[in-house]
Write a structure and sequence with these properties.
single chain; 93 residues; three-stranded antiparallel beta sheet; MarR family transcriptional regulator
Length: 93
Amino acid sequence: MEGTQTEGLDDLPPSAKLVFKVLEYNGPLTQKGIVQESMLSARTVRYALERLEGIGVVDEDVYFADARQNLYKLTEPAQEFTGDESDASCTAD
């Protein structure tokens, strides 16, 4: 399954990769938070989140502080994927 995610991430547009990295570094965020952190337009962030949800690396949850918004976070397999990648680069140094 990790191989599928790698191919899926490689095939995504740069905006979706940026949103992925924002979620990786900052943890769960609302769409508004992702817009602020990434400095992308709201429309671009929505499209990127759709693409990331489509390959199964982002999960949408209820944001309890404001039920009108959703909270986006990386799925467990995506977190393992990013952890493996950073571990590999650390051991090579």
